[in-house]
TrEMBL record:
It is found in: Cytoplasm; Nucleus. Its EC number is 1.13.11.54, 1.13.11.53. Binds either 1 Fe or Ni cation per monomer. Iron-binding promotes an acireductone dioxygenase reaction producing 2-keto-4-methylthiobutyrate, while nickel-binding promotes an acireductone dioxygenase reaction producing 3-(methylsulfanyl)propanoate. Its cofactor is Fe(2+); Ni(2+). Keywords: Amino-acid biosynthesis, Cytoplasm, Dioxygenase, Iron, Metal-binding, Methionine biosynthesis, Nickel, Nucleus, Oxidoreductase. Catalyzes 2 different reactions between oxygen and the acireductone 1,2-dihydroxy-3-keto-5-methylthiopentene (DHK-MTPene) depending upon the metal bound in the active site. Fe-containing acireductone dioxygenase (Fe-ARD) produces formate and 2-keto-4-methylthiobutyrate (KMTB), the alpha-ketoacid precursor of methionine in the methionine recycle pathway. Ni-containing acireductone dioxygenase (Ni-ARD) produces methylthiopropionate, carbon monoxide and formate, and does not lie on the methionine recycle pathway. The gene is ADI1. Residues 130-156, 448-467 are annotated as: Disordered. Fe(2+) binds at H81, H83, E87, H126. Belongs to the acireductone dioxygenase (ARD) family. Belongs to the short-chain dehydrogenases/reductases (SDR) family. InterPro entries: ARD, ARD_euk, NAD(P)-bd_dom_sf, RmlC-like_jellyroll, RmlC_Cupin_sf, SDR_fam, SDR_oxidoreductase. One of its GO terms (molecular function) is dioxygenase activity. It catalyses: 1,2-dihydroxy-5-(methylsulfanyl)pent-1-en-3-one + O2 = 3-(methylsulfanyl)propanoate + CO + formate + 2 H(+); 1,2-dihydroxy-5-(methylsulfanyl)pent-1-en-3-one + O2 = 4-methylsulfanyl-2-oxobutanoate + formate + 2 H(+). It comes from Trichoderma ghanense. This is Acireductone dioxygenase.
Length: 467
């Protein structure tokens, strides 16, 4: 059994939602909630007889048993309610969460597994939910879909198993992916410094996010600004284990239409921002002989997209930088992964108060006359934005869960592609490069031999032709 204060962050009810404020069994007893662990049902029978219980119900909460009504039932169980009589809750298999309201009207989450038993007093508001290991696929047909997990070759954290508490700095913590990654790390009990943009987010909006979260502001284009953020995180948490850079900026428009300010701003944010983050943190990682970089690139860092030329160029530069860095820092046990998401939708697309535009930190520049026709290739990116709207196929929440696993795995890959669009588009790009290599490999331009050997070769060729 583990009990803690519920963090009240948005997200699936089946996530841990651990605020980091622990609650003891004695604290639960003060609310009238009593905990026991009974490996044998005979012990439960004895307790029931002792407390005068006459009725007993056994419910199996699983997609296999409940079928199509499973999701509706789980949502129903999570509606808070109370009972007029004292009740026992005994877990015979699996695991889940019971939430109870304390006297301060806050939710206390109690994580229970097989053989755990709690006694709920009469008149206490409570609710129940399964955890992530007991979910149904998004489709109502077929078997339940397993939780997304990195392959075993990465040695990722075990599902529902204990993990070491890590300290994260997440640059771009107010953006599409950054927001979801901050929530994911906090829900798993990690410590997070969430870094917003100085010219976009008021400092007061970064305060009070979570007990385990330090809200900061930064302009990644400034080396000093990045260094201050790192020092503030060190002052608060005493160490840093993972640095994630989700910050980014792009201009949608033809290469010719983008002026020097547009191009420099994209490179200063995407490339120089990444370099500033590395320069501020790598000496510390090198000294402690451990550290991890999770750098958000893009599918545009692997292929050229019409209408995103300078943005692609800045992401290509990031890819080359991180790939070289990985070789240089491997001896110091510093790991780096390039994360290449494709067409990721917002974590809360239907929330009226969501301050982010549908396509995040992209500016759509009006086209000049030469690139303004409806079928102009330069308008490809703009057409894609208008066509997709808020229907991007890849979930930011699911991506964030995989990136969190990436921070905790033992053998991270150099690249992690997220979403079917990223997989298919980069696979097509690689196939095109391979075909070009095959088409032109005959132009190998071998080194010129010595003059005497060259004459001998010519003579042999001539004789062969004469025959």
């Amino acid at each position: 059994m583990k009990a803690y204060m519920y963090d009240n962050l948005p997200g699936d009810q089946r996530l841990p939602h651990d605020s980091g404020r622990q609650v003891t069994a004695e604290d639960l007893a003060g609310l009238g909630v009593l905990y026991h662990r009974f490996p044998e049902t005979s012990d439960v029978d004895a307790l029931a007889a002792e407390r005068g219980y006459r009725n007993r119900d056994e419910i199996v909460v699983s997609p296999e048993k409940m079928g199509d009504v499973y999701e509706d039932k789980v949502k129903m169980f999570f509606n808070e309610h109370l009972h007029e009589d004292e009740e026992i809750r005994y877990i015979r298999g699996g695991q889940g969460y019971f939430d109870v309201r304390n006297k301060g009207d806050e939710w206390v989450r109690i994580q229970l597994e097989k053989d755990d038993l709690i006694i709920l007093p009469a008149g206490i508001f409570h609710r129940f939910t399964t955890d992530e290991s007991n979910t149904r696929s998004e489709s109502s047909e077929g078997p339940p879909r397993p939780r997304l997990h990195l392959p075993a070759s990465c040695d990722p954290p075990a599902p529902n198993g204990p993990t070491k508490q890590l300290v994260w700095i997440i640059f771009g913590g107010t953006g599409h992916m950054g927001r979801s990654l901050v929530k994911s790390a906090l829900s798993h009990g990690d410590l997070v410094a969430s870094v917003g943009r100085v010219f976009e987010t008021p400092l007061e909006d970064m305060q009070g996010i979570h007990d385990n979260c330090l809200g900061l502001l930064c302009d990644v284009r400034s080396r000093d600004s990045v260094a201050r953020v790192f020092q503030q995180a060190m002052d608060r948490f005493g160490r840093v284990d993972v640095v994630a850079n989700c910050s980014g900026y792009g201009v949608i428009g033809a290469c010719e239409d983008q002026d020097e300010h547009d191009v420099r701003n994209q490179f200063e944010t995407n490339f120089m921002g990444t370099l500033h983050i590395i320069h501020a943190t790598l000496p510390y990682f090198r000294r402690q002989q451990a550290g991890r970089y999770l750098i958000f690139s893009s599918t545009s860092g692997a292929l050229g997209v019409p209408g995103l030329g300078p943005y692609c160029a800045s992401k290509y530069a990031v890819e080359g930088l991180i790939e070289a860095l990985l070789y240089e820092t491997d001896a110091f046990h510093v790991k780096a992964t390039l994360i290449e998401p494709g067409l990721v939708r917002r974590d809360e697309p239907d929330l009226d108060t969501n301050p982010l535009p549908t396509w995040g930190h992209f500016f759509i520049k009006p086209p000049s006359e030469h690139y303004s026709t409806a079928t102009s290739p330069a308008l490809h990116a703009k057409r894609m934005v208008q066509w997709l709207g808020d229907r991007q196929p890849t979930s930011a929440v699911k991506c964030a869960e995989l990136v969190w696993q990436l921070g905790h795995c033992s053998y991270p890959p150099l690249r992690l592609l997220l979403g079917s669009y990223a997989i298919e588009s980069i696979r097509d790009r690689m196939r095109s490069v391979t075909e070009e290599l095959e088409d032109w490999k005959h132009l190998n331009f071998a080194s010129v031999p010595d003059s005497d050997q060259g004459n001998d070769e010519m003579e042999v060729t001539a004789d062969a032709a004469a025959v």
